[in-house]
Amino acid sequence: MASSPPLLALALAALLALSASFVGAAKSKAIAPAPAAPEPLNVTAILLHNSTNHKTFARLLHETQVDIQINSELDDRSNTFTILAPTDDAFVNLKGGALNTLTQQDLVELVLYHILPRYYSLPMFVTASNPVRTQASGNHGTYTLNVTTDNSLRVNVSTGITQTTIADKVFDDSEQLAVYSLDKVMLPYDQFGPKPPPASPPTKGPKGEAAAAAGETSGAAELGRGMWQSLVTGAGLMAAIAGSLL
Ligand SMILES: *[C@@H]1O[C@H](CO)[C@@H](O)[C@H](O)[C@H]1NC(C)=O
Ligand SMILES: *[C@@H]1O[C@H](CO)[C@@H](O)[C@H](O)[C@H]1NC(C)=O
Ligand SMILES: *[C@@H]1O[C@H](CO)[C@@H](O)[C@H](O)[C@H]1NC(C)=O
Ligand SMILES: *[C@@H]1O[C@H](CO)[C@@H](O)[C@H](O)[C@H]1NC(C)=O
Q1: Is 218 buried (19+), middle (13-18) or exposed (0-12) by CB count in 10 A?
Q2: CB 42 near ligand 1, within 6 Å
Q3: What is the pTM of this model?
Q4: Domains along the chain with CATH numbers
Q5: CA angle, 218 as apex, 216 and 219 as ends, to 5°?
Q6: Which residue of 44, 51, 59, 179 sits with most ligand 1 atoms within 8 Å of its CB, as the best mutation to test the pocket?
Q7: How far is the CA of 158 from the centre of ligand 3 (A)?
Q8: How many whole angstroms separate alpha carbon 161 and alpha carbon 190?
Q9: Average pLDDT, whole number, for the chain?
Q10: 69 lines ligand 1 (CB under 6 A)
Q11: What is the pLDDT of residues 31-71, one digit of tens each?
Q12: Which is higher by pLDDT, 98 or 15?
């Protein structure tokens, strides 16, 4: 048979390749005996693959690059998160382009506002202490929300602007990440609450000088925008009071 020698050669080659990869595997095992790490969590993949109606939020996570941040924090198994993901309909139902007026920074905060910096199973929400901090809580405002629960594991969230109930569970690995569905976009009070009255124009008269002075003395310190605003507003208010006394 003419075909035998090549076949044999092929079989030999296959055997060699197999044993080589076996040795390779054995070697890498010897170097890293730790058990295989679990598949890294990917929040956009979860929203796109474990749900059919969270595409908009997945896109926002991606556009704001919050996905990169959360995924990399999830690589550290000690970090846990709960994501409250609004449905596509929730975004459609937002009144007249509510998000169009947001700056890019505000959009980032809005996305971060829907992420809680710890894992909550549904029963664990009972232990949440109001106001609950979100990933957006910090430099640019308080960005907290309130949670209320009842005996049948219904969980309501309230931002001071938006009230809604946690609907379906999208994902839950029971220790590090839970993703729940919301029928509404949570509008943060920090962005959609009543705005403080505008500060007096900085150029005219003693009011402006007072505001400018307040700005100068506090300008050296690194201040969050919220604190900055309240300072400026406070100065404006004081100037207004002083003005009305004159
Ligand atoms: C996460 O999933 C998205 C969507 O499937 C994909 O585009 C992206 O590359 C993934 N990221 C990583 C780090 O694997
Ligand atoms: C949650 O909200 C619904 C609708 O507004 C209300 O009927 C229910 O009582 C609320 N439950 C809790 C626990 O706050
Ligand atoms: C949230 O809860 C805190 C503490 O109970 C309360 O002071 C605050 O008014 C609540 N805010 C909203 C918007 O319900
Ligand atoms: C999420 O989707 C992945 C991939 O389709 C699947 O393996 C996994 O079981 C799903 N997890 C949940 C909690 O639905």
Answers
A1: middle
A2: yes
A3: 0.71
A4: 43-123+166-185 (2.30.180.10)
A5: 60
A6: 44
A7: 9
A8: 10
A9: 78
A10: no
A11: 555 667 678 999 999 999 999 999 999 999 999 999 999 99
A12: 98
